[in-house]
Amino acid sequence: MSQVRRQSAMRPRPSWGWQDRAACRGEDLVLFFGPDGERQPEREIRERKAKEICAQCPVKTECLDYAISRPEKYGTWGGLNEDERASERRRRMRRANAA
Q1: Distance (Å, whole) CA 73 – CA 66
Q2: CB of 34 within 8 A of CB of 48?
Q3: Which GO terms describe its cellular component (predicted)?
């Protein structure tokens, strides 16, 4: 138990200031996280709309970096869905290991 506390205490606390400047601020969360039982065609439409907002976002990079560093398992963050973020996370890990 104390080991778990030590590990979580070592993880830097996130800075949330970037969220105040996010293009998604005030948008419906369902657009970015989707409802339970959502079908694939509806998901694709919803994700496309969310990614359009992300594409114009001034803090897209900070959002994506946050989601990858946690890692956030659900939703659209920084313009990437769950599968795309998992691929990006693997790509970043490969790059870090190669350096």
Answers
A1: 12
A2: no
A3: cytoplasm
Pick out the residues of the known binding site for [4Fe-4S] cluster: 24, 54, 57, 63
pLDDT for 14? 62
Tens digits of residue pLDDT in 9-48: 555 666 778 899 999 999 999 999 999 999 999 999 999 9
pTM: 0.80
Binding-site positions read 24, 54, 57, 63
Please, where are the H alpha helices in the chain?
A: 2-10, 29-33, 40-55, 60-69, 82-98
Sequence-separated (6 or more) residues with CB below 8 Å from residue 85: 64, 67, 68, 71, 72, 77, 78
